[in-house]
Amino acid sequence: MGSESAMVVCCIICLLLPSVVLQSCGFFSPYWIKHNSTSECFRGVVYNTGCPDNVEGLGAAVLGLQVTSFVIIVLTSIPTIYFICCNSSDDDDDDKTGCCTILGGCMVCLYPVAGVLGFSGCMVVVANFGDRDKGWAFFLCLAASCYVILEMFLCYCMLYMLAKNEKKNNVSDESGQEVTQYRNDNDGGGMVVGQTMEHHQIGISSTGEIIVRKLQFTRIFHIS
After folding, report:
1. pTM value?
2. Transmembrane region positions (predicted)?
3. Which of 57, 171, 187, 213 is the most buried (most CB within 10 A)?
4. Which domains does the chain have, with CATH numbers?
């Protein structure tokens, strides 16, 4: 149980925290674009710092893209944590496991959208303020978006490989053993032949467990 808990904590730390922390710090910081080289005026997504009142932010397009990206990252992190915790325990019923699968599927669909939207917002900033100095908040959000895109690309590759291996392993490997026994039937004046056949079926369940089934067939013949 201790190793499973440690694995859950490692998954949450490696998969979720970097994007949440980077996006949160960059989104709520004003240090995106330096207004000019002679002042300490920095323009941010939400608010500015050290700037006159007539200096506007980065624009409605950047604000909309970054807000949407931030909301999706935060909201998808909650069901993802629940999804990881559900699959880490072995005593879950089918309904709970199905709910976890749905939440995980929603996360997989929405999470890449957050990365694409965040990256698009950063590219809008580059297009509109290409000649201005960039602050560390800009690079934090850019790193968060790239991390999400790379993370989901690797996740899709891993899911593809698992699905490919599962499809290959689900084809049952059958191995049989045939044993034939003979016994004289003195009363009936003939011979009784018993033939026993054993087959082994190997497969992998949806949870990754290996299932081995042993089938035994016995056929009896009376030879007069």
Report:
1. 0.63
2. 63-85, 97-130, 136-162
3. 57
4. 2-169 (1.20.140.150), 175-223 (no CATH)
